[in-house]
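User: I'll paste a sequence; please echo it back and then give the predicted structure.

Assistant: Echoing your sequence first, then the prediction.
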Amino acid sequence: MKKGIASQVFIYIFVMIVIAMILLFGFRQISNLNNLSEKSTYISFKSDFMKAVDDVYYLNKGSVLLFSEDSRNKPLYVPKDIKKICFEGNIVKFDSQKYNNFAVDNLQGSECINIIDGKLRFRLENTIEDGNVIVKISGVGT
């Protein structure tokens, strides 16, 4: 009888170890899924932003596109780690080291825009400087 009780203890210990491993694996997979979601948001933002700049570039001089809640073009979603995006010339810089900066053709900017509720609200304007068509970016506030 004592031998049976001793073998049950080992079975319980083994079951607890298996349950702990399953929980650990599950938490790691959920964490990886969240990281993947944030990366896809970043890639989507980058693609949508470049498309918006191209759209304004090919419009008439003085054309403006507004990306805000009240406009036809809605704000662009950014990953939740990003709280501010800075534009220096044609370079888009993030306040998070997690995401790579990138260059956008025909963009010109020199300001930082705060992210509110995970969305970038901005204004793009087609202008001509020194005989070249450029797209200027500015913030639209809250």
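The chain has one domain: 2-139. DSSP finds one helix and nine strands in the chain.
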